Amino acid sequence: MLQNTLTIRHYQALTDRFTSLWSRGYRTDDLRLYLDGYLSALRQDKSLEPILIHRLEEEALRFIQDPSNFEVPYY
What we know:
By secondary structure, the chain is mostly helical. The chain contains three helices and no strands.
């Protein structure tokens, strides 16, 4: 569970981007590549502690692996 406010903001930005990319036709492998690049940038920037980046990675991967996050709602 994420508790650091900056980490939560990064998580929200990632999940919003994941759903946007998914709706544009990108799939799981593409989302993982995007996540790898995002996390690499965070590590280079050193704006978050390594443990927080690791937790962010775990939560983001959990989000990607849950197919219900990418279902289109029916109205």
